[in-house]
Write a structure and sequence with these properties.
Elements (H helix, E strand, L loop, with lengths): L1 H21 L11 E6 L2 E6 L4 E2 L6 E2 L2 E8 L10 E7 L5 E8 L2 E9 L2
Length: about 110
């Protein structure tokens, strides 16, 4: 009985450690990893530097509808960083973005849309 409690506790701690190390929460300033362009209600978000768009993540804009999300060429680290495209009535609100650099991913990154 005692061994099973210890084993159960060790497994729970292991799962918690894995969960915390595989996802990085966004921090203040992470919006600097994004290139956000909006005109006439058409919003396009791409990543900067070595970061690329994570197309498997649940991108969302609170003032518009998601049209497409394409991942960047993360293998070659080329100029294509992928992009997320949305359409809305106006360029306002907040977009929740997700980007990766190798095996390090960040998101959701809340960024203002102007």
């Amino acid at each position: 009985m005692r061994v099973s409690k210890i084993l159960g506790s060790l497994i729970a701690v292991g799962i918690a450690v894995i969960a915390m190390t595989t996802t990085t929460d966004s921090r203040a300033g992470d919006e600097e990893l994004l290139d956000i362009k909006c005109a006439g209600g058409k919003l396009t978000v791409s990543a900067k530097g070595n970061w690329y768009v994570n197309p498997a993540a649940p991108w969302k804009w609170d003032k518009g509808e998601k049209k497409s999300v394409s991942g960047g060429d993360h293998e070659k680290r080329g100029p294509d960083h992928g992009k997320a495209v949305f359409e809305g009535a106006k360029c306002e609100g907040t977009v929740k973005a997700y980007v990766c650099n190798g095996d390090q991913c960040k998101g959701p990154i809340p960024a203002p849309v102007h």
